[in-house]
Amino acid sequence: MSSPAVVWDPSLLKYDLGGQHPFNPVRLDLTVRLATELGVLDGVDLLVPTAAGDEELLRVHVPEYLAAVREAPNVGWDVGHGLGTDDNPVFPDMHDATALVVGSTLLAARKIADGEVRRAVNIAGGLHHAMRDHASGFCIYNDCAIAISWLLDHGFDRIAYVDTDVHHGDGVQAAFYDDPRVLTVSMHQHPFTLWPGTGYSAEIGKGKAAGSAVNIPLPPHTRDPGWLRAFDAVVPAVLQEFQPQLLVTQCGVDSHEEDPMADMSLSVDGHRTIYSTLRDLAERYANGRWLAVGGGGYQLIRVVPRSWTHLMATVLDRDVPPETPLPPGWVSTVQGAAPAADLPAAMTDGKDTAFKRWGDDADDPVDIAIRDTRRAIFPLHGLDPDDPRD
Ligand SMILES: [Zn+2]
Q1: Is 129 a catalytic residue?
Q2: How far apart are CA 27 and CA 281, in angstroms?
Q3: 34 near 147, Cβ under 8 Å?
Q4: What range defines the domain where residue 369 resides?
């Protein structure tokens, strides 16, 4: 078994929604530069993706939508299917650029399915809002759902998807809402307070799949300890019961307190702890198989590069100590391009992520979310929602 797979090629920077759009590919470029400067990628062969073909895109999307995406740059702004909006503007070669993102996550999935690696990471992936017949939330094609669908046809029939982006993982949930082979778990800011307005704890899956959609909506301004307390109170128990063969995680970092698109209050230290927790869960409950993709994250300079460097380091078992200073080469690159940028000094925000486990009767606002989700989901998995040992 070789070392984990890292998918990256600068051609992935072509997924560029243009202008002042917040989904700016510079965040990926700065992440790879930072990881490289820190030695995280030393000796790692970066896997170069190719674009996914229609056969794969049609696993999740309908033909009319593919045609609309292909035609959009020629047609103008009024093309329907959620395209040409402020969120999802039409951009040159958008079909090819998005198909490449899908191909990059598929390549990571293929490496795991072929048994070449147990873990793979693709920070360019994570377009979790894209729907069957329309673009949504900066996402054109849903690489996460397409890769999961492909894995279901290549040796896997129990896949757990865990989404830690600040927004609800609605597109992936929708793709498998009635499929008991896929467990989708989403931790996000409460839909009352944040787009897309879904992800209530009562959304549990349909028919035979009841219990296979898990939603943990958290109050705005939740900090690392509260977030981790909620995660710990729900996710490990459900994974233990579900017994996945593979863990797929969408690792959006727009939950950071400096992110301009949302109102959660996590830190880079919280993100780092999330990644090591996901790694532990993959080892314990998913035969060590872990496919990690990126996602949202709009603090392009101060947050995304550090958090996703920690993600890649965690996947590679090359954990970067939080106090590690930012390397001078990276700092001068950023200062050259953005002289006014206020850069952090180290790979930490200096936050303590220690948390109290649920069941201690503490009066924490996230406990309402924990209780609601456990009561909605746990009985469907033979677990006691009110017993902290479950
Ligand atoms: Zn997001």
Answers
A1: yes
A2: 27
A3: no
A4: 5-381
Model pTM score: 0.98
How many domains would you assign to the chain?
1
Q: Which CATH number is 373's domain given?
A: 3.40.800.20
Residue 122 lies in a domain: yes
Dist. CA 283–CA 287, nearest whole Å: 6
Distance from the alpha carbon of residue 297 to the mean position of ligand 1, in angstroms? 7
Closest by CA to 138, choosing from 68, 88, 173, 78, is 88
Evaluate whether residue 387 is within a structural domain: no
386 within some domain: no
Catalytic residue among 61, 129, 167, 168: 129
Closest CA to 15 of 120, 88, 115: 88
Establish if 290 belongs to a structural domain: yes
Residues making up the chain, counted from first to last = 390
CA proximity to 32, closest of 4, 52, 5, 6 = 6
Please tell me the predicted confidence (pLDDT) of residue 362. Answer: 66
What is the predicted pLDDT for the residue at 77? Answer: 64
Whole-number Å distance, alpha carbon 16 to ligand 1 midpoint, is 16
User: pLDDT (tens digit, 9 = 90+) per residue, 163-210?
Assistant: 999 999 999 999 999 999 999 999 999 999 999 999 999 999 999 999
Nearest to 81 by CA among 105, 63, 103: 63
Distance (angstroms) between ligand 1 centre and the Cα of 5 equals: 24
